[in-house]
Design brief:
46% of the residues lie in helices and 16% in strands. By secondary structure, the protein is of the alpha/beta class. It has two domains: 193 residues, 2-enoyl-CoA Hydratase, Chain A, domain 1 (Alpha-Beta Complex), CATH 3.90.226.10; 49 residues, Lyase 2-enoyl-coa Hydratase, Chain  A, domain 2, CATH 1.10.12.10. The strands form two sheets. Strands 1-2-3-5-7-10 form a six-stranded mixed sheet, with helices on both faces. The chain has a four-stranded mixed sheet with strand order 4-6-8-9. Helix 6 crosses helix 7 and helix 10 packs antiparallel against helix 11. The chain is globular, with a radius of gyration of 19 Å. The model has no long low-confidence stretch (mean pLDDT 97). Bound molecules: acetoacetyl-coenzyme A.
C-alpha cells in the first residue's frame, strides 16, 4: 500500500515503519496514526515479517499528537470521533513483537506510541515527556496509565504534572527503556534485536508478548495461571520439540512456526 506519512521497508523478516512528517516533528495526526495502524496490521498478517521496528527521525520519534489538528475540536468532536481510541485498540491487537527505536523527542502521543510497543530502545539523544499539561489537557493515549506502570507513581506524577522531559539515561534507570545506545547506532541496535527475535519460534515470541502484557491486566495468581496454561500449550507445537531436540543435539534450532 502507498503511504503518505510513513515509510515502510520489509527486509530480512523485519518490517521497519518510519514516521515521516519531518516538517511537524512527526506529530501524530489522524492520517499518520491510521497509516501506522494499517502498516502494523499488514506486517502482522504478512508471512515475510517476524518482528516490527517502529521509528522516527533523528530529531524526533514524534513530538506528540498534532496540536494544529486538535486545537479547535470540541468535547463532542473528540468523543464522537473517538480520538486515538480506535488506533490504540488496533495497535494493542498486533500480535507480533514491536520494538520502538526512539531518537530525539518522544513527547505526548509520541511517548505514548513508544510505550504501546513491546519495548523501547533509545538513542542517547532521546527525550521523553508528557507535556500535555502545558496545553491545558492530559494525555489521551496512555500517558497517565502506561507511564505509571513503566516508571511508578512518583515519576509518572512528576512528568505529567510538571511536563518536564526525561533524558535517555533517566529513562533507562527508571525502566522506561530497555537499552540506550549512541544515536548513530540506534537502528543497528534495533535491527539486531529484531533479528534475534525473528530467529525464534514465532509461536513462542507471540506467547511471550501475550503473557507479559497479561501481567499488566490481571492479579498475580491469575497471570501465573495464564502463563502456565500458555506454557503447557506450547508443548503441542513442533517448535518445542525442535527447540529442545536442538539443545540436546548441541545445534541451532530450526523453528518452523508449527
Ligand atoms: N503538533 C503539531 N505541530 C508540531 C508539534 C505537535 N505536537 N510539535 C512540533 N510541531 C511543529 C511546530 O509547530 C513547528 O512547525 P512550524 O515550523 O510550521 O512552526 C515544527 O513542528 C518544528 O517544531 P519547533 O519549531 O517547535 O521545534 P523546536 O525544536 O523549537 O521544539 C519541541 C521542539 C520542544 C518538541 C516543540 O516543538 C514542542 O514543544 N512541541 C509540542 C510538544 C507537545 O506538547 N506534545 C504533546 C501534544 S498533545 C498530545 O500528545 C495528546 C495526547 O496525549 C494524545
Amino acid at each position: 500500500m502507498a503511504y503518505e506519512t510513513i515509510i515502510v521497508e520489509i527486509a530480512d523478516d523485519i518490517a521497519t515503519i518510519r514516521l515521516n512528517r519531518p516538517d511537524a516533528l512527526n506529530a501524530l495526526n489522524q492520517k499518520l496514526l491510521n497509516e501506522v495502524c494499517t502498516a502494523l496490521e499488514e506486517a502482522d498478517a504478512s508471512d515475510k515479517v517476524r518482528c516490527i521496528v517502529l521509528t522516527g527521525s533523528e530529531k524526533a520519534f514524534a513530538a506528540g499528537a498534532d496540536i494544529t489538528e486538535m486545537a479547535d475540536k470540541t468535547y463532542v468532536d473528540m468523543t464522537t470521533q473517538a480520538y486515538f481510541q480506535s488506533q490504540s485498540r488496533r495497535i494493542e491487537a498486533i500480535r507480533k513483537p514491536i520494538i520502538a527505536a526512539v531518537s530525539g523527542y518522544a513527547l505526548g502521543g509520541g511517548c505514548e506510541l513508544a510505550m504501546m510497543c513491546d519495548f523501547i530502545i533509545a538513542a542517547d539523544t532521546a527525550k521523553f515527556g508528557q507535556p500535555e499539561i502545558n496545553l491545558g489537557v492530559i494525555p489521551g493515549m496512555g500517558g497517565t496509565q502506561r507511564l505509571a506502570r513503566y516508571v511508578g507513581k512518583s515519576k509518572a506524577m512528576d512528568m505529567n504534572l510538571t511536563g518536564r522531559f526525561m533524558d535517555a539515561e533517566e529513562a533507562l534507570s527508571s525502566g522506561l527503556v530497555s537499552r540506550v545506545v549512541p544515536a548513530k547506532k540506534l537502528m543497528e541496535e534495533a535491527q539486531g534485536a529484531a533479528q534475534k527475535i525473528a530467529a525464534k519460534s514465532m509461536l513462542a515470541a507471540m506467547a511471550v508478548k501475550d503473557t507479559v502484557n497479561r501481567a499488566f491486566e490481571t492479579p498475580l495468581a491469575e497471570g501465573l495461571n495464564y502463563e502456565r496454561r500458555t506454557f503447557y500449550g506450547l508443548f503441542a507445537t513442533q517448535d518445542q520439540k525442535e527447540g529442545m531436540a536442538a539443545f540436546r543435539d548441541k545445534r541451532e534450532a530450526q523453528f518452523r512456526d508449527k
